[in-house]
Design the sequence.
């Protein structure tokens, strides 16, 4: 191996995820993560080893690289895998091609024109339904027929590491008819994964479940921050708005769908049978272990959730087929959130709302404090990885600290 | 006057709206509408009359021009007004600077990163509440406190003239629990206006109602197409999704806020009093006459709605203040829809849903047919203009034909 890869690294030779990084001496450019390093693709391009216009590696986002198509992007990934494992390859004895991740700054990997958030975990939808609506009929009638989704805000999606301020907004005190204004008292994370489209369509065109994999470039971790008190007051009838659009964080490395291929598993049985345009063949779920940790200011990390992406009722192929069945067009770089990924166990719930069950079961922290929701100074960290037969493919982390409201 | 301006033209000397056009011999570029002509700004720039980098007029969108700031964009508008009225100005005897609108193709005036749709007409919200929810409590408790809004799809916003196909999707037949898939039977227009931000903010920053005018570059007409049968089945609990994102049309000319200044009027009294961050001073509503016509295939246009933008309960300054009060960042070119603009009179309702009252009062057309919703082959045209003391400032039209589902 050309570069040392720590055992259990998310960024093994089987992964080769793409991202945008900068260093003290040089502006943002494309790279791939390998072990604790980044292979600088703009620098590799100088070796004249690629047969396409490598100006795409000098861009501030990966959109133009992705636009080259999977024939090329998959070949780049395969070539790098081959070169890294060959001690006499073009990458040999060229330490200048590698940057320590600890010495790099990560940036948004893609420009996102449109962001859609789904609601595809049955456990999450059921939990929320129990708390906010009718415990006896927690799951709404449309939920098993439609991969329910809504449009989110693209502008406020930021990369892991950027601290954000607690949002302010309107909320309604219990038993009051007069709303008040102030800092949210119900700041929450949502453990999600997001996929990024790698191919555009024109208005009027649809993507079938069979075609979907070809349109999905890769995946990231997504923390879809939510302000539950703002959400509760504003969301009827048109859905969440200010409760969500103050920020969402994504992990910086896009793990390709091809790297995740070995971790495909069967999804939950869908009953009643879905309409033909939502039916699919083969395995479309992915076994990706997920966890969430909270680091209170001045304390150490405490894991509060273990979940798995394989729990999702609706898969990405169904989400994309549904999204486009009416002719809605998609662009390269668009982001699609899974919705909060909750499992059946209480420790697998993907939000504080569910973990502390609307504040009725506060989480005890190691420093003696309790958490119903997220406190100022808390850092929330999400991690995800797949592992099978000695192969590990991971996402690293998406991490952000909450600063007090301005 | 350098160019002939027909009496009652929307594009009078008082207007000077900006847009992007192309001609058979030349690619898209910036222009202003004047009478039946377009003044080619890229060509005017060749006269060396502007003291900024005029490459902005050669771009495919106005975003970079708008980014110059209102000091410059307003001066361009004022200079053009002055030059057009001066028979010996730099524009005199240069017919090559003018293109007939009938010989130009209009394009999207801006690149839209994010699209937000509000719901700010009390009459519309009340009508929808009566039909879809509880006639006795049609207006939801939050409506008088919050300029309710939600995120829409940016990718499918297209410019006037582009025909679109009727969307397909899931709907639920009355008294059934099993949804069906097919072409929407409830295709509807929504008469809206949209404003476009002319200044960006960073994540965490807010825009006050006092600052809002400075952040609004101008306005367009907006037809926010809706599929009512799809909407009814999908929209609980996260809001409209496929019922809206198959297409929205905007008019091609952005009328600046400065051109609309003479038409400011007082808005409706807001009771109960709104929270301090939503309070405002001065006039923030605009007296803009609106109308909607339907042209059945092979027949002539029939006006089905007369409304006015001044009816809006929530104004644009309040919408923008609300949108950013949680720190959500905005970008130049972002579009904000008003929501359907309905008045009190039955002929002022801004959608077929309301005009034909959920199909119970079909509209009789001149060709003998009836309309509950929009038919294949129908062309829907919206127009808007302000008029006062002999000054007319208008938007032209937003127009689109509905093709059968694919």
Sequence:
């Amino acid at each position: 191996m050309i570069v040392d890869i720590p055992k259990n690294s998310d960024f093994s030779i089987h992964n080769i995820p793409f991202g945008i990084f900068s260093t003290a001496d040089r502006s943002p450019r494309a790279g791939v993560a390998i072990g604790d390093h980044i292979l600088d693709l703009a620098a590799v391009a100088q070796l004249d080893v690629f047969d396409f216009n490598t100006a795409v590696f000098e861009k501030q986002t990966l959109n133009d690289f992705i636009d080259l198509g999977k024939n090329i992007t998959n070949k780049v990934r395969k070539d790098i895998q081959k070169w890294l494992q060959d001690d006499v390859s073009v990458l040999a004895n060229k330490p200048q091609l590698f940057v320590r991740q600890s010495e790099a700054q990560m940036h948004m990997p893609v420009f996102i024109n449109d962001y859609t958030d789904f609601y595809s975990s049955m456990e999450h939808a059921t939990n929320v339904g129990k708390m906010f609506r009718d415990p006896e009929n927690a799951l709404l009638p449309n939920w098993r027929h439609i991969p329910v989704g809504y449009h989110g805000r693209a502008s406020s999606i930021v990369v892991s590491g950027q601290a954000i301020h607690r949002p302010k907004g309107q909320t309604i005190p219990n038993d009051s008819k007069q709303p008040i204004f102030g800092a949210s008292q119900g700041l929450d994370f949502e453990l999600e994964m997001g996929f990024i489209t790698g191919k555009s369509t024109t208005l009027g065109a649809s993507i079938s479940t069979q075609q979907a994999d070809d349109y999905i470039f890769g995946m990231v971790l997504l923390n879809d921050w939510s302000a539950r008190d703002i959400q509760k007051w504003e969301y009827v009838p048109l859905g969440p708005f200010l409760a969500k659009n103050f920020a969402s964080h994504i992990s910086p490395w896009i793990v390709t769908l091809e790297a995740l291929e070995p971790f495909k598993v069967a999804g939950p049985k869908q009953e009643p049978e879905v309409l033909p345009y939502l039916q699919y063949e083969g395995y479309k779920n992915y076994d990706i272990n997920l966890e969430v940790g909270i680091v209170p200011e001045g304390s150490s990390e405490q894991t509060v959730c273990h979940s798995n992406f394989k729990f999702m009722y609706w898969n990405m192929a169904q989400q994309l087929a549904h999204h486009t069945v009416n002719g809605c067009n998609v662009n390269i770089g668009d982001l699609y959130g899974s919705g909060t990924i909750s499992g059946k166990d209480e420790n697998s719930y993907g939000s504080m709302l569910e973990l502390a069950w609307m504040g009725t079961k506060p989480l005890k922290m190691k420093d003696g404090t309790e958490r119903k929701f997220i406190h100022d100074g808390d850092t929330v960290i999400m991690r995800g990885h797949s592992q099978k037969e000695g192969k590990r493919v991971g996402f690293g982390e998406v991490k952000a600290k909450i600063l007090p409201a301005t």
About this structure: Chain A has nine helices and 26 strands. Residues 115-403 of chain A form a domain with the Fumarylacetoacetate hydrolase; domain 2 fold (CATH 3.90.850.10). The radius of gyration of chain A is 21 Å. Residues 278 and 322 of chain A are 7 Å apart (CA to CA).
